Automatic annotation (TrEMBL), chain A:
Keywords: Cell membrane, Membrane, NAD, Oxidoreductase, Quinone, Translocase, Transport
Reactions catalysed, as given in the entry: a quinone + NADH + 5 H(+)(in) = a quinol + NAD(+) + 4 H(+)(out)
Principal EC category: translocase
Coiled coil: none
Protein name as it appears in the record: NADH-quinone oxidoreductase subunit D
PANTHER family: NADH DEHYDROGENASE [UBIQUINONE] IRON-SULFUR PROTEIN 2, MITOCHONDRIAL, NADH-UBIQUINONE OXIDOREDUCTASE 49 KDA SUBUNIT
Subunit structure comment from the entry: NDH-1 is composed of 14 different subunits. Subunits NuoB, C, D, E, F, and G constitute the peripheral sector of the complex.
Domain NADH-quinone oxidoreductase subunit D: 158-443
SUPFAM superfamilies membership: HydB/Nqo4-like
UniProtKB/TrEMBL annotation, chain B:
Protein name according to UniProt: NADH-quinone oxidoreductase subunit C
Species whose genome carries this gene: Streptomyces boncukensis
Membrane topology: Peripheral membrane protein
Keywords tagged on the record: Cell membrane, Membrane, NAD, Oxidoreductase, Quinone, Translocase, Transport
Stretches the record annotates as Disordered: 1-39
InterPro entries: NADH_DH_suC, NADH_quin_OxRdtase_su_C/D-like, NADH_UbQ_OxRdtase_30kDa_su
Reactions performed catalytically: a quinone + NADH + 5 H(+)(in) = a quinol + NAD(+) + 4 H(+)(out)
Family the entry assigns: Belongs to the complex I 30 kDa subunit family.
Length: 443, 246
């Protein structure tokens, strides 16, 4: 059994049973070889369960001393097959899935998906103004909460716990608004093909105005806390460098692209949801580094707050769902004693007085609406960059194929370009500046 | 514009165009996709042909609210290909304008050349590729697998689509990673889910699914793997086996 050149594994009898001592073999020689070599090149797996990799991201780093010589990403740990799942649900049910992709920016997923479905249906012009306005309002609030998560987690990774706590505190304010408006803090499925699931609840406008006042005060704190802070600057400046040529080649969009000096923002270049009627600016820097991206996101939050304010000022009563009853979900939601549900009046009407309304309700909910065959691409400027939806219909009641071009997925590719040649500690900063959310990367 | 049949659908007209135009991608029978037993609904004899929007005639026009730049891009692309000694009709199989979007169907062997031309020609300048999306048309014989690329020109503020097909039994498409490095992960994703083999990709490995996974999950013939649910003796089949509105 054992070869004569190697000592057999030692065996001890204990009260627990036999214990084998597995040494010997050629491991001694391997260990000796490593001990002799002065090469400090090692390969480190960071993640997929590392607290500072934003979820289940696995970084494979080849390290020479403190220097990263090569860096690669391992992804897929959060793949849930959402795109495949969509093909087995109706077009309306799709929003319930897509909102869970990048769970930090659910409204952008929903809006992009619904814009694509509406384009396939050819009803872009029929979406009521109030629905579009509330979409913009929610997207901009969501941009603030997404950037807050970036600020908070980025701060936490640097050990700046105050920034982390401030960030999550302010994000919570936004999530409270979401809860008030949609009923849920995340995973809303509030934006639906054709409009919204329901109108703003009473008191929402007051809460929004109160929020704008508070947030304007709080945003100034980050300026004071971070922008002049020498430690913060030392950790972020010139880290995660990616210039314009690199951004274009790697398809990086959003704050990464704008930190390289290009003011590319789909809200300005290809306005959707009436963004061309709002007054806001697209900030840029030319530092190409993490500090620049941090400053950009801070400024973007100010700009988003401006848009939110304009939305609130412009809100006027009106429908929030397309008039076409063949598409509009036949729901008249009301707050019942058991939480959200269809209003009793509506149920009484369809159950008691109109057989046709009941049939229609049943058909639309179980079967859904048919979408003319064809394909389309709808893109929105999400907090992370261009979020594109490629939707294909074969004329059925379910999507034939929906593909999300998630900005986190694309931007994460630039991790290697940002990290190689730098220090291990700077990998954390560079990855944080990409702001990847694995729910979006893996879908 | 060739999409008259699409806009008149608000009143619930049947969505599939009845005319002869368009690319047939499938034929549907019945209403509930029933293949396990008789269809007693009375809709069993229903036959519907599914057509995707077909090739468009010039002038192509442009998206609403913008200058009519579709013809300009098509002219420039055809001209630039001709300059390189490549006949445009060999490279561009079909040009489709649908829903304000311009699609070039490209012969797969010419894809890298076309992509490079689109990127480098100053009049085209599509600098940003937003990746590749696979689509599996099970009934589109001989061209089942489609790879769809969206290219954005930041210089000219335009967006176009390229579509390339490959048959199921030879799922090979040339990689355009050396033109657009951003497609590295996107092509891996399309390979992972559709089994599209991108020739020339530097490391075409699975990206989402485990490395030892068998099969390509987003192909339409890939079984979902659900198990039938039994309740009081009745069997409810797995989601992809159930009857559904087709």
């Amino acid at each position: 059994m054992t070869s004569p050149t190697h000592a057999p594994a030692g065996v001890r009898e204990t009260t627990e049973g036999t214990v084998y001592d597995v040494t010997g073999g050629d491991w001694d020689q391997i260990a000796a070889d490593i001990a002799q070599s002065d090469d400090e090149r090692i390969i480190v797996n960071m993640g997929p369960q590392h607290p500072s990799t934003h979820g289940v991201l696995r970084l494979i780093l080849e390290i020479d001393g403190e220097t990263v010589t090569e860096a690669r990403c391992g992804i897929g740990y959060l793949h849930t097959g959402i795109e495949k799942n969509l093909e087995f649900r109706t077009w309306t049910q799709g929003t319930t899935f897509v909102t869970r992709m990048d769970y930090v920016m659910p409204f952008f997923n929903e809006a992009a998906y619904c814009l694509a479905v509406e384009k396939l249906l050819g009803i872009e012009d029929d979406i009521p103004d109030r629905a579009t306005l509330i979409r913009v309002l929610l997207m901009e609030l969501n941009r603030i909460s997404s950037h807050m998560v970036f600020t908070a987690t980025g701060g936490m990774e640097l050990g700046a716990t105050t920034v982390a706590i401030f960030g999550f505190r302010d994000r919570e304010m936004v999530l409270d608004l979401f809860e008030l408006i949609t009923g849920l803090r995340m995973n809303h499925a509030y934006i639906r093909p054709g409009g919204l699931s329901q109108d703003l609840p009473p008191g929402a406008v007051d809460a929004l105005r109160e929020f704008i006042k508070k947030m304007r005060k709080n945003l100034a704190e980050y300026q004071k806390l971070c922008v002049g802070n020498p430690v913060f600057k030392a950790r972020l400046k010139d880290i995660g460098y990616l210039d314009l040529a690199g951004c274009m080649a790697l398809g990086a969009t959003g704050p990464i692209l704008r930190s390289a000096g290009l003011p590319h923002d789909l809200r300005k270049t290809q306005p959707y949801c009436g963004y061309d009627t709002f007054d806001f600016e697209v900030p840029t820097t030319d530092t190409c580094d993490s500090f620049g991206r941090f400053l950009l996101r801070l400024e973007e939050m100010h700009q988003s707050l401006r848009i939110v304010e304009q939305c609130v000022d412009r809100l006027e009563p009106g429908p929030v769902m397309v008039a076409d009853k063949k598409i509009a979900w036949p729901a008249q939601l009301a707050l019942g004693p058991d939480g959200l549900g269809n209003s009793l009046d509506h149920i009484k009407k369809i159950m008691g007085t109109s057989m046709e309304a009941l049939i229609h309700h049943f058909k639309l909910v179980t079967e859904g609406f048919r979408v003319p065959p064809g394909q389309t691409y709808a893109a929105v400027e999400s907090p992370k960059g261009e979020l594109g939806v490629h939707a294909v219909s074969d004329g059925g009641t379910r999507p034939y194929r929906v593909h999300f071009r998630d900005p986190s997925f694309t931007n994460l590719q630039s991790m290697a370009a940002m990290c190689e040649g730098g220090q291990v500690a700077d990998v954390i900063v560079a990855v944080a500046s990409i702001d990847p959310v694995m729910g979006g990367v893996d879908r | 514009m060739s999409d008259e049949h699409l806009n008149g659908d608000a009143n619930g007209a049947p969505p599939a165009p009845r005319g002869g135009r368009g690319e047939v991608i499938g034929v549907r029978h019945g209403m509930f996709g029933a293949s396990n037993g008789g269809d007693t609904s009375g809709y069993g004899g229903l036959v519907r042909t599914v057509r995707l929007p077909g090739a468009s005639e010039r002038p192509y026009g442009g998206p609403r609210g913008e200058a009519a730049w579709f013809d300009e891009v098509a002219d420039e692309l055809e001209g630039a290909l001709e300059e390189q000694g490549l006949l445009p009709e060999n490279a561009i199989e079909r040009t489709v304008v649908d829903r304000d979007e311009l699609t070039f169907h490209i012969a797969r062997e010419h894809l890298p050349r076309v992509a490079r031309t689109l990127r480098d020609d100053p009049a085209l300048r599509f600098e940003l590729c937003t990746g590749v999306s696979g689509v599996h048309y099970l009934q589109d014989a001989g061209r089942e697998l489609h790879a769809v690329y969206h290219l954005r020109s930041i210089t000219h503020n335009r967006l176009i689509r390229l579509e390339v097909t490959a048959p199921d039994d030879d799922p090979r498409i040339p990689s355009i990673v050396d033109v657009y490095p951003t497609n590295d992960w996107h092509e891996r994703e399309a390979y992972d889910f559709f089994g599209l083999v991108f020739d020339g990709h530097p490391a075409l490995a699975r990206i989402m699914m485990p490395d030892d996974w068998q099969g390509f999950p987003q192909r339409k013939d890939y079984p979902l793997g659900g198990i039938p649910v039994e309740y009081k003796g009745a069997q409810i089949p797995a989601p992809d086996q159930r009857r559904s509105y087709s």
